[in-house]
Amino acid sequence: MKNLSFTLILSLLVLAFGACGSDSYKCEVIRNNFEVLSEDSVSEKKSTVSIGNISYDVQYDSSTISELNNETYDIYKVVDENNNMTEKMIEINSRTNEIVCFSGITPYSKIENIELLSDDELKVAVEQTIGDTVDFSVYNTFTVERYDSELNTYHLVWQLKREMLCNVKLDLYITAEGFIEKYSKTDACPNSLTRSFVSNSERDTLLENSICEYLNISSIYEIEYEIQSETLSYYKGKSGIIYAVKIISDGFVQLIVLAIS
Predict the structure, then answer these.
(1) In this structure, are residues 171 and 101 in contact, taking their beta carbons and an 8 Å threshold?
(2) 100 and 93 in contact (C-beta within 8 Å)?
(3) Mean pLDDT, to the nearest integer, of 226-246?
(4) Which of 107, 152, 166, 199 could make an SS bond with 189 (beta carbons 3.0 to 4.6 A apart)?
(5) The pTM is what?
(6) What rounded mean pLDDT belongs to the chain?
(7) Who contacts 7 (Cβ-Cβ below 8 Å, separation ≥6)?
(8) Do residues 160 and 168 touch, judged by C-beta distance below 8 A?
(9) Strand partners, 226
C-alpha cells in the first residue's frame, strides 16, 4: 500500500511538472501599444540635436517605453525657421543618449551617382558616410531592396545573425538623389540567445492558438497562414522570438507580428 501511494504521488508530481513545462512559454500578438510617459517624467529636454554635421532645433514631443527591451525613448519633432513643429522626427534613447531613429531629414552628405552603384559599392559608400556614427562590425548580414515605384528609394538593412537572425539591425532608406532620409537602429536581443528555445511543434501550437484568439475563430483550419520571418529578440525584457505571420482569411491577407517568450 505504501509503495502504491508513493507511486501515485510520484506520478502526480511528474504530471504537474510536465504541465508546467508545456505552459512555460506564452505567445501574444504585438499590437505596438507603447506605454506613453508623462512629459513631467523627462528630466532634461533638449532644444537642439546634432546628427552628422547638422544641428537641428527640436521640440520635445513624447516618451515611450519599448515593449521589447523596456528602454525609454524620447521623441523630438524638428522645428522650422518659424519655430513650428514639423513631421520630421528624431528619437533618442533616454538612458544612453543614442539617436536610434530619424525620419524626414537628411543630415548626411549625398551619396554620389547612387543609381550606378552595385549592392556592394552602395554598402561601402554608406558605411563610409556614417561610419563615425555606427559600428558596422556588429552586423554580419546585409541586404538591399531597390524600389522603382514613385517613392524610388533604396532600402538597406544590416543585421546580426547567429544561428538565427537577431533583432540587432540597422534600417536605412535612401532617396533616389542619394540622401539618407530615414534611419532606424535596433538593439534588442540578449547576447546569450543564439537559437530558438521552442521546438517547431511547440512554436506552431503557440502561434496557432494566438492567431485563433486574435481572429476570434475556433479552428486554425478556417484560415491559411505562413511564417514570414523568425527573429531572436527581447520581449518585455525577457528572451523572446518575434514572428511575422501572413494570414489569409476569406480572401483577405494581413500580416501580424507575434512574440513567443
Answers:
(1) no
(2) yes
(3) 96
(4) 166
(5) 0.86
(6) 88
(7) none
(8) yes
(9) 246
- The label of the residue with cell 558596422 reads 136
Are 121 and 178 spatial neighbours (Cβ–Cβ below 8 Å)?
no
Query: What is the grid cell recorded at 14?
Result: 511528474
Sign of CA dihedral 178, 179, 181, 184: positive
Q: C-alpha grid cell for residue 218?
A: 475556433
| Residue 98: count of CB within 10 angstroms of its CB | 14
In the block, cell 538593439 appears at 187
Helices (H) and strands (E) counted in the chain, each on its own, are 3, 14
* Residue in this structure with the C-alpha cell 512555460, named with its chain if needed: 24
Length of the chain: 261
Please check whether residue 157 is in contact with residue 143, taking contact to mean a CB–CB distance below 8 angstroms.
Answer: yes
Residue 6 has pLDDT above 60, yes or no: no
> Which residue bears the cell 537628411?
106
Residue 9 grid cell: 504521488
Per-residue pLDDT tens for 219-234? 999 999 999 999 999 9
Terminal CA-to-CA distance of the chain, rounded, Å? 43
